[in-house]
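User: Predict structure, ligand zinc ion.
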Amino acid sequence: MTHETVFTYGAPALKFGAGAADEIGFDLQQYDAHRVLVVTDPGVAATGHPERVAQSIRSFGVEAVVTETARVEPTDESLQAAVDLARAQGPWDAFVAVGGGSAIDTAKAVNLLTSNEGELMDYVNAPVGGGKAPQGPLKPLVAVPTTTGTGSESTTICVLDVLAQRVKTGISHPRLRPSMAVVDPRLTMSQPAGVTAAAGMDILCHALESYTARPFDSFAAKKPDERVPYCGANPISDMWSERALGLLAGSFRRAVRDGEDEDARGQMALAATFAGLGFGNAGVHIPHANAYPIAGRVKDFHPVGYPEGEAMVPHGMAVALTAPEAFRFTFEAAPERHLRAAELLAPGADGPADKRDHLPQVITTLMRDIGMPNGIGAVGYTDSDVEDLVEGTMKQQRLLATAPREVSGDDAATILRSSMELW
Ligand SMILES: NC(=O)c1ccc[n+]([C@@H]2O[C@H](COP(=O)([O-])OP(=O)(O)OC[C@H]3O[C@@H](n4cnc5c(N)ncnc54)[C@H](O)[C@@H]3O)[C@@H](O)[C@H]2O)c1
Ligand SMILES: [Zn+2]
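Assistant: Predicted complex:
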């Protein structure tokens, strides 16, 4: 095999800092946009942020219409409904997403399907969907995150639940990447503690998984048209991931405990952005592969801080629940990286005698402190569900290919079973 020698790096234009969201109207003028759709979800709309952003856009002479069509953790049905409405009310010159990953991913789908022909499922990753690439360019999309989590403002994917197939998957293409990310930590202050905790675990896992991902130069060499946005761990993504871990160490517990702590909120927003810039190019692996069935096959779990009356395991929580055991499994592929990550997250902590336990222990201590459920048992799964979950995990071959060790069905079963109860 000829080894890969090339890695790639892509990122949106970025504006970061308190007050950045007030300038979006100016930025839209630079894109020559006259009529824009502001996409959000009802929970974020209730904070008033999207309407304030729309008002400020209007003050620059740009027409802005707010739509609350994003659903928390989008489905094929919710995205299709958002697209239908946007198509009926268009045309639009640009889109602005104000919200967490759910609103940003909805805006990506709306942008794709108002700029291109066809239906949603044509573009969803194969084999679940048609895996089609957009034929033409998309419109400018300005992504304004209000959670500190997904990094979706920097990435090329839109994650969705395909209800009929009970599977979470995505649409993935470089053209989906927002043109500009506007990260204004002030908009994140109103996040409920439960959302801060779950979304923060998503940041943590993005950083840890991309840092421990299979190195880009261990893959077979690709032709130019075979390159994918996620190319494995590389010197640039490593830098973002390491910095994100250091920022989390100093701010995560504080932001969950006191949502008014502006300094902690600012550091968390920076951490989410850094981790997004890292994993958005390197990729993620086992915890994210497990998260899809854990979230997709939820029975009756209702997390605090999320919309009431709906069973769900939020993305960041679903990712976190198997992370300690996943990193125990991947330790042997790169011990020094696992130990360095533990040191960044808990500087100076005495590690256990068995070094393999160090990073898992640092993660579980943090999870306890911020009120994460104690394992997949605590969100409703039992040993009799493991086979079903493994089947869902093994469908995520795109993610498992980025793991630093090969993952068999038996390995996935062991990780899931040991994640029933974490402490
Ligand atoms: N595209 C990507 O790169 C990517 C990466 C990771 C996750 N995701 C996806 O993103 C989604 C999760 O996004 P998320 O974790 O950002 O949360 P979210 O967008 O689902 O929002 C979670 C909850 O918090 C509320 N909320 C958000 N911001 C708020 C604020 N400032 N004040 C008050 N309430 C607020 C929302 O109304 C919602 O009820 C999942 O669908 C996940 O699969 C996408
Ligand atoms: Zn994630």
